[in-house]
Amino acid sequence: MKSNKKFIIMISGVIAVVIFWIGWVSLNPADEKAMATFISVEDLINDNINKRTKLGGLVKGGSIVISKTNHLECTFTLKEGNTEIAVKYDRTRPDLFKDGAEVIVTGQYLNGTFYADELQTKCASRYEGDLRDESSYNLTEIDT
User: Fold this and answer.
1) CA-based R_g, the chain, Å
2) How far apart are CA 12 and CA 35, in angstroms?
3) At 6, is the secondary structure helix, strand, or coil?
4) How far is CA 49 from CA 32, 36, 87, in A?
5) What DSSP element (H or E) covers 27?
6) Is beta strand 113-121 parallel, antiparallel or unpaired with respect to 102-110?
7) pLDDT tens digits for 8-35?
8) Is residue 121's pLDDT more than 60?
9) N or C: which end of the chain has fewer CB within 10 A?
């Protein structure tokens, strides 16, 4: 009986430590940039949320403006449904970033502008295909 009681106490202790550790890590992340809530553009604007967030939507056609002095810096309009928001981004843009591209941006909303420090584009459908069908590869040989 005593060994059975020790086993239960030991398992209970391990469970308590694991629960404590999960709670501690969740409330005190090592990297604050890793903690970003995914919300809608409408909620961001209506609630004036100024903590680190993620937004998703489409790049409005004709809205991309690249700085003439710093070619990394650009502004564009992110459109989600009928709601739009101005986005500033000053890092390397993905190759698939263009008008109408589906994007996810991560950053902070300040004074009516979303300052993004991460920009991801959705992969284009041209990269999708049935990998089991070799004819979908469209590979050509190069003669040397």
Assistant:
1) 24
2) 30
3) helix
4) 16, 12, 15
5) helix 2-27
6) antiparallel
7) 999 999 999 999 988 887 777 666 666 6
8) yes
9) C
Q: Are 88 and 109 in contact (CB under 8 A)?
A: no
Backbone angles phi, psi at 10, to 5 degrees: -65, -45
Compute the residue count for the chain: 144
- The amino acid occupying position 2 is K
* pTM to 2 decimal places: 0.65
- The answer to whether residues 36 and 54 touch, using CB atoms and an 8 Å cutoff, is yes
Q: Which fold has domain 33-125?
A: OB fold (Dihydrolipoamide Acetyltransferase, E2P) (2.40.50)
Domain ranges across the chain: 1-30, 33-125
Listed in order, strand segments (DSSP E) in the chain are 37-38, 53-59, 65-66, 74-80, 83-89, 102-110, 113-121
pLDDT tens digits for 41-85?
A: 999 988 888 888 999 999 999 999 999 998 889 999 999 989 999
3-state helix, strand, coil in the chain (%, to 5): 30, 30, 40
Give the integer Cα–Cα distance in Å for 65 and 127. Answer: 27
